[in-house]
Design a protein that fits this description.
Rossmann fold; 29% helix
Length: 168
């Protein structure tokens, strides 16, 4: 799913011409311009599967795992270990965004560093959360594999990461 969603995300990123080997000889193709200016941040643990798919396509872009807390965002210590986002395109990756209580503070923290773009992707999001995020952050594009009427907020052993990884 990450591979599929990143092709949609590429529509928002700056591309440049490049030469590619084609069965009919050398042809002109497209590649991501300034690969190092696109930073991928996946939310541990559940965002890893989607993040790995994105990284599979954006192989030369910096890729970080982050552990934000609900209603708090990224800790100051963890934030200090990340690169500066000024004028970069930042892709935030989580598996499910239910209430956005984890995503909103992260977006706000990143916005403080004036990135060029923030792009958010997830596999599932409830319709009402998508509408709320779209109203709150009209300058951010959200790439959602499936919108849902269901809402699930895991606690402890029932969180999405445990469900994806099959761990208790």
């Amino acid at each position: 799913m990450g591979k599929y969603l990143v092709y949609e995300i590429l529509e928002e990123l700056e591309m440049e011409d490049c030469e590619i080997q084609h069965p009919q000889g050398i042809k002109t193709g497209k590649q991501l311009k300034n690969k190092k200016n696109v930073i991928i941040l996946d939310f541990l643990r559940a965002g890893v599967y989607l993040g790995d798919g994105i990284r599979n396509i954006l192989q030369n872009s910096p890729y970080y795992h982050i552990s934000p807390k609900r209603n708090e965002g990224i800790s100051e210590k963890e934030l200090s270990q990340l690169p500066n986002f000024k004028e970069k395109s930042v892709i935030l990756v989580d598996s499910v965004i239910n209430t956005a209580a984890t995503m909103i503070p992260v977006i706000e923290q990143i916005k403080l560093q004036t990135p060029r773009k923030i792009l958010v992707t997830c596999q599932v999001m409830p319709y009402d959360t998508a509408e709320m995020l779209d109203n709150k952050f009209p300058d951010i594009n959200f790439y959602i594999f499936r919108l849902s009427y269901n809402k699930y907020v895991g606690k402890g052993k029932t969180d999405t990461g445990n469900r994806l990884f099959g761990t208790p």
